[in-house]
Structure formats: structure tokens, C-alpha cells
Design a protein that fits this description.
Elements: H1 2-5, H2 7-19, H3 31-36, H4 43-65, H5 69-83, H6 93-96, H7 99-102, H8 110-136, H9 143-167, H10 178-187
Helix pairs in contact: 4-5, 5-9, 8-9
Length: 188
């Protein structure tokens, strides 16, 4: 694709997400700082600064859980969405679809902790949506409250991820075999 489109391909496919600025309100706690500095020379630095924590957390989760491919995919996707500078409701489907694969290997059960986690997830979004409704439909200035609600969503998502990680029984996708072990010893 690079041969056909050149630098535009690299920029639109890979680099755009690092420098992306979206000043409309969304579930991310980064929306207000980006909104306030949208036309400022510091906006590029803000965009990059919001990307670094996401990259570090997603990378660390990949290193920590890479042996369990499905759980690594779930935790990395969950963190990617939670730490993203733009987060809208359809992003939640990226990790919700992985829950049926990882949930059977968790010691969490629906009662009581599963419901507590679901309540925290929906409750934090409800808090945000209340402020978004007031802004969009009633015309009230709720930007600071929206930012605070985004911070609550961020904290709730981090707590939920922490609880899920703490309850997970890591299940490697491929178990080492005797043949693989003997081959590895020969290579050493």
C-alpha cells in the first residue's frame, strides 16, 4: 500500500492515531484538556502526552500476559479503550466480544462480584451520560462535570481491569510439549 499511496498511507494508517485530536466530548478523560488546547501550539504535545500512558500500559499487559493469548488480547484491548484519548460507546464492543473467551478462566462469578463490576461499569457511564445530556440537550455548561465523569469512568475501568486480572487463571493457548522442550534444550 505504501508503494501506491506513499506517505499518506503511513500517516493515515499508523501515525494519525498518535497525533489525533478530537475536541468533541466523549468518554475519555482526555477530551477536555484536548478541547481547551485545540488551537494552541501545545496541542500536539498534549496529543502525544495522552498517547504515552496508553502505549505503556498496553505494552506492559502484552508482556505480562503474552503466554495467554486470549487474556492478553482482552486486557490489552480493554486498556487501549480505557486509556484512549477518544472513546465512544462502540469501542466497548472491542473487548466485550472477548469476555466469553476469558470469563471461564476467571474465579469471578456473576454473584456478587460480577454484578458489582457490571454496576460500576454502567454506573460510571450513566453519570457521564447525565452530564452529556445536560450539555447537548439542555445547553448547560457541564464541561468540567463531563471531565470529572470521564475521570470516574477511567477509574472504574482501571478498577474493573484490576479485579479481572486478579481473578484470572492464566491458560496458555499452547502448552509446552516434551518435543518442544527437548528441541529448546538442543538449541541452547
Amino acid at each position: 500500500m505504501y508503494g501506491i499511496y506513499g506517505w499518506d498511507f503511513v500517516d493515515e494508517t499508523y501515525l494519525y492515531h498518535i497525533s489525533r485530536k478530537d475536541h468533541r466530548h466523549n468518554y475519555s478523560m482526555w477530551f477536555l484538556p484536548i478541547y481547551l488546547q485545540f488551537y494552541s501550539p501545545a496541542s500536539a504535545a498534549m496529543s502525544l502526552a495522552s498517547f504515552l500512558p496508553q502505549a505503556l500500559v498496553v505494552g506492559a499487559l502484552g508482556l505480562a500476559f503474552g503466554g495467554d493469548l486470549y487474556f492478553a488480547a482482552f486486557t490489552q484491548t480493554f486498556a487501549f479503550v480505557a486509556y484512549n484519548k477518544v472513546c465512544t460507546a462502540q469501542y466497548f464492543m472491542w473487548y466485550i466480544c472477548l469476555l466469553p473467551v476469558v470469563w471461564p478462566h476467571s474465579s469471578l462469578r456473576l454473584m456478587p462480584w460480577g454484578l458489582v463490576l457490571v454496576a460500576a461499569w454502567f454506573g460510571s457511564q450513566g453519570l457521564y451520560l447525565q452530564q452529556a445530556y445536560r450539555l447537548e440537550f439542555l445547553g448547560e455548561n457541564t464541561f468540567t462535570l463531563l471531565w470529572a465523569a470521564g475521570a470516574v469512568i477511567f477509574a472504574a475501568n482501571n478498577w474493573i481491569l484490576y479485579r479481572i486480572i486478579g481473578s484470572q487463571q492464566i491458560s496458555p493457548l499452547f502448552a509446552p510439549t516434551a518435543t518442544a522442550s527437548s528441541t529448546a534444550k538442543k538449541l541452547q
